[in-house]
Specification:
The complex is a heterotetramer, with two copies of chain A and two copies of chain B. Helix content of chain A is about 20%, strand content about 35%. Chain A is an alpha/beta fold. Chain A folds into two domains: about 90 residues, Beta Barrel (Elongation Factor Tu (Ef-tu), domain 3); about 110 residues, Nucleotide-binding domain of ferredoxin-NADP reductase (FNR) module (Rossmann fold), CATH 3.40.50.80. Chain A has a seven-stranded antiparallel beta sheet with strand order 4-3-7-1-2-6-5. Chain A has a six-stranded mixed beta sheet with strand order 10-9-8-11-12-15, sandwiched between helices. In chain B, α4 packs across α5. Chain B has ten helices and 16 strands. In chain B, α8 links the parallel β15 and β16. Chain B is about 35% helix and about 20% strand. The relative contact order of chain B is 0.17. Chain B has a single domain, classed as TIM Barrel, CATH 3.20.20. The chains are: A alpha/beta, B alpha/beta. Chains B and C meet through β11, β13, α7 and α8 of B and β11, β13, α7 and α8 of C. Bound molecules: flavin-adenine dinucleotide (2 copies), flavin mononucleotide (2 copies) and FE2/S2 (inorganic) cluster (2 copies). One FE2/S2 (inorganic) cluster (FES) binds next to loops of chain D.
């Protein structure tokens, strides 16, 4: 993992735009130069657009797009509960409170070659900045997207131009054996003998388990970005642990990106 | 703007330049947003509870947000003494505010041995005894049985010359009785209180929200109970009381002083607002000024 | 839309057509927005606690809103028995749901005499003992001392053939011990629980927010503590448990069933939403349907 | 007191308008035909424009204007805390939850004659509908208004046209001995020997105590509208008592309007 060079900051950000993408999905653009400047793909912010007496905790969100020069970043989020409901009502010029950037981001392979990005649902939010950076670096990107329903499939528009190949399945109308988008990855590994420098997965433990199986056979580097309920987001509360081969690790501090083989994925 | 008001307070032999400090387990010197200057402006610095040997803590999920606060079932994944000595203590050397070390133990002997070891370090000003972490069966025992509580403190005092702060459990019928027991046994300071034991259930998945099933409730929802407990105990105990539980603002902190606390700790509110302690220190000064009090001592226990 | 699911539940000899009823003191048959049909669709109807003799209650202010709930120091301004008989009981004759009368008393004798008088009325199905109103010094005594609690219930049972519901105080170290004591002494049903004792202070005016200084906390902020207490007690007691404290929605009520409650009472949420009990009854049916349970009995105590 | 003929209803109302009058004062117009139809001067509603998980209790507000035909009413309110802060952000078409009408309203004297309305600050809100009804009945209205600051003096514009005489003082620039607007009333009673059928007071216990003194000497009927913190607003919780010569009485049920001589005004 690439370590955050700077410790997280606590700042006020300004909403530049907030729009409904489709269904319960929204994209919000926030101006916060001090955070945008140091933001790395795979890192996240703790955000609140509410008073502590309204909702007690901030909520973690990955960077979806980072524009260090303009001092802004975007978040792609799904409305699922109280916090994201309030967030979805954001208007231009609203203020949000931010702690960030938090956690360790993705590392890209040293070699120039192929990488695979595997995302389910909102997981694509976390992988987009990685694709942008990978593309800049001259890597060839294979994208594998999955979602519950066709109209909830996020990212083809953004990831498409960055990817040399893009694959997707949806639960309601899937392609590929057993509906797992990772079967396409398996096919590539098996038949074409395509070599991947690294595989990155976000948004599904089920897909991650499949990749772990493939990894055992084909020996590529693989990274998973994980989510856990968070108190502080900065490592202080020890609230966000997941189980790894090294014992409990904090998603906010040792993660959210972990080498796939270190994570104990059962449950 | 603020005229000089005196924020300093003596908790027995512990001299604080102001009465606001973090609550154990919600603050980590290794993982704080505050810079050195900001840290040095706190009343004291406190560690996450440490143990004689490494403890893993509970399986996740460890956090659940409640209607006015949160529950945690972190379970004290404590560092062992050696790790603490090598890796944490050196980080604390740098600061010019009192350093309080919170301790957790499995038995009276365990507590005493740890205290004895910590006693050797000049830099440590006080030992806080976590009597009440409700996530450990044995921890609850110390905090809710007055005979064991008394015995523990009595034995502990024989093993350390440091100021001993007894952090009580609020999960008791009579907090005053527990506070008096701690005082009699030799505690220098009473802290009221640790978290309330609670539970939340996910009716969709049909499982508890926390990996450990039950966890400790913190935050504003329980503050009125804590304020009442401080008020009750402060009528009877003579040693200083530190209030903790649900403070999110200056107003909340003032409630505790008025109820009888000489200092306060701020816990989970740090998560939402990492500057909350700094804001409260300033807020108290502003309040004293406005109300024309000279010192924070003037408002301790004003409500009888 | 809802298939027929069975909402009925037997609390010992008390048969309810559904498990949702008001909590004493938050509902008054003389002052309700609900019409007769709506009232008849509740699981039961309950009275404000009555006493043998008229009691005035506490001076104002009696109410204070907290971060996730409220405090009250109403203090049981109870009607005496004669007034109850003449003015309230006749209003209750009209309904076809069980009528529960909540009682408060100054002494065991006082409780027993009142119970004996109430025993004469066919219309009354059960007597709820308010053991724990934290606003009365003597009330707290019954609720927090297990010997007195046991004795009271034991004596009371000798004076009445009605179902006896013991409404416990949550201000105790060990709720299971209190519940077992009540069960052993002959209580038919345990209610967990009355309000938590709390305090709030106005730092501007330098006075407590409540006329009585301290008051009982209700509402969602304390629900996790209540859920934990129900869960703990239900592992041990055999008689049915009624859960009360901080229910504002179907989801909140479900938590209590899953933790081990056979029925629930809804208190202060009625103030904000007078239809909340009706909504919850419907919500439970919807949940059982969706989850393909046949009866609410199927989910009682599912979380072990 | 005139008793509410109907028991309070629990309904959803629609905001038609919400505007800032001056400083922290706002006027909101709400459409709720079932409530407006039965509303009487002196009665109030319990209102929330928030979820129970945000603010636990509803807030009581007097009717400021009642339009039974159009099925709407207005509230004049002062932003003082969390609830009124949220209320002040109301926009047209927002929904509010209402319990009302609550409590007992004012009774007007049987005789046609003079009445005096004494209001401090926001107290004028409660008295305006009484003035409108009194005027309709052919009563001659004397209004006495007071406020902390000149620009916070509410009501002269609305009460002026309804009153034959209007008096006011403000703490920052008062007229009349000792700053109490009730000294004007005392003057009238003393010098002109003006007879009042009834005096109504709202918004100040200090002014009420003065009126009580005058009442002892000049024997007019007097009524006070009181405020207390409320749980339910409908008489169920016994939370809103004030002390009277008959013992504790509920402001929401026996009040909010009480005969002045029955209320124990000390403290
Ligand atoms: C490192 C990280 C990055 C994330 N990035 C994104 C993103 O880019 N876009 C996006 O839509 N979502 C993302 N999530 C998930 C997002 O944090 C939750 O959807 C959000 O917290 C839900 O809040 P709520 O109040 O709407 O839901 P509620 O269910 O009301 O929240 C209740 C509590 O549970 C927590 N919680 C609920 N769901 C999750 C979850 N999946 N992960 C962690 N905590 C949760 C909340 O933070 C809160 O404390 C990320 C989570 C993590 C840990
Ligand atoms: C019968 C009646 C009629 C009223 N009519 C009006 C009116 O027409 N216009 C107007 O501006 N105000 C009126 N008030 C006062 C109004 O209810 C309070 O200003 C309002 O409740 C404040 O809510 P908040 O959340 O902004 O304040 P906060 O201080 O945050 O409220 C905290 C708690 O205290 C209670 N509270 C605070 N102030 C009062 C008060 N003065 N009286 C009763 N409870 C209070 C609140 O209801 C809440 O429960 C009336 C009060 C009563 C009892
Ligand atoms: C995540 C978390 C971890 C905690 N860990 C400890 C601990 O290790 N030792 C301890 O004595 N208290 C611990 N506590 C309790 C706090 O120190 C404090 O007593 C409690 O949170 C109440 O204060 P608050 O409402 O301000 O958070 C912890 C609390 C939280 C929220
Ligand atoms: C205003 C008020 C008055 C109450 N009066 C009584 C009472 O007379 N007897 C009693 O047993 N409980 C009384 N209670 C407690 C409730 O019955 C209930 O136990 C408590 O409010 C917790 O439930 P809730 O959170 O759903 O309100 C009262 C509660 C409130 C808020
Ligand atoms: S969220 Fe606090 S340690 Fe990770
Ligand atoms: S507010 Fe409940 S009785 Fe008046």
């Amino acid at each position: 993992m690439k370590s955050a060079e700077n410790k997280p900051l606590f700042v006020t950000g300004k909403v530049l735009e907030n729009r409904n993408i489709n269904g319960d999905y929204f994209e919000i653009v926030i101006e916060a130069p001090d955070i945008a400047r140091n933001a790395r793909p795979g890192q996240f912010v703790m955000l609140s657009r509410w008073n502590i007496n309204n909702l007690f905790l901030k909520r973690p969100f990955s960077f979806y797009q980072i524009d260090a020069e303009q001092g802004r970043f975007a978040i792609l989020y799904k409305k699922i509960g109280k916090g994201t409901e309030i967030l979805s009502q954001s208007k231009k010029a609203d203020q949000v409170e931010l702690i960030g950037s938090c956690g360790n981001g993705f590392s890209l392979p040293e070699n120039v070659g192929k990488i695979a990005l595997v995302a389910r649902g909102i997981g694509v939010a976390t992988l987009l900045p990685l694709a942008i950076e990978g593309k800049k670096k001259g890597l060839e990107i294979y994208s594998f997207l999955s979602a519950r329903e066709k109209n909830l499939l996020l990212g083809p528009d953004k990831l498409g131009p960055l990817s040399s190949h893009i694959f997707y399945t949806t639960d309601d109308d899937w392609k590929g054996t057993d509906g797992k988008v990772t079967f396409f990855l398996e096919e590539l590994l098996k038949n074409n003998r395509t070599d991947f420098e690294a595989v990155y997965v976000c948004g599904s433990k089920r897909l991650a388990r499949h990749i772990r199986e493939l990894q055992k056979e084909y020996h590529f580097a693989a990274y998973i970005s994980l989510e856990e309920r968070m108190g502080c987001g900065i490592g202080a509360c020890k609230g966000c642990v997941i189980n790894t081969i090294y014992g409990y690790q904090r998603v906010c501090k040792e993660g959210p990106v972990f080498p796939l083989e270190e994570v104990i994925l059962n449950e | 703007m603020n005229n000089k008001v005196d924020l300093s307070i003596n908790l027995g032999n512990l001299q604080l330049k102001n009465p606001v400090m973090p609550a154990s387990g919600t603050f980590d010197i290794r993982d704080t947003i505050l810079n050195k200057e900001q840290l040095n402006s706190l009343g004291a610095i406190i560690t996450k509870s440490i143990a004689s040997h490494k403890r893993l803590g509970n399986p996740g999920p460890r956090i659940w947000e409640t209607e006015a606060g949160m529950m945690n079932a972190v379970g004290i994944p404590a560092e062992g003494f050696e790790y603490f000595k090598e890796n944490i203590l050196p980080l604390l050397e740098d600061f010019c505010v009192p350093i309080i070390v919170s301790m957790v133990g499995d038995s009276i002997t365990d507590f005493c041995q740890l205290a004895k070891k910590l006693d050797n370090f000049e830099k440590i000003s006080a030992l806080e005894i976590n009597l009440s972490c409700p996530n450990l069966n044995d921890g609850l025992y110390f905090g809710t049985n007055k005979d064991v509580l008394g015995d523990l403190i009595y034995q502990l005092k024989k093993n350390t010359g440091k100021v001993v702060m007894a952090k009580l459990s609020p999960n008791v019928t009579d907090i005053t009785e527990m506070a008096l027991t701690a005082e009699e046994a030799g505690a220098d300071i009473i802290i009221i209180a640790n978290t309330f034991l609670g539970m939340a259930i996910d009716s969709e998945k049909l499982i508890p929200r926390l990996g450990n099933k039950v966890g400790g409730i913190s935050g504003p929802g329980i503050r009125p109970i804590i304020v009442r407990m401080i008020w009750e105990a402060s009528q009877r105990v003579k040693i200083p009381i530190v209030g903790v539980g649900g403070i999110t603002s200056t107003r909340d902190a003032l409630e505790m002083f008025l109820a009888g606390a000489s200092a306060v700790q701020v816990g989970s509110a740090n998560f939402s607002n990492p500057y909350v302690m700094l804001n409260i220190i300033e807020g108290i000064a502003g309040y004293l000024n406005k109300k024309k009090y000279k010192s924070v001592k003037d408002i301790v226990g004003l409500i009888k």
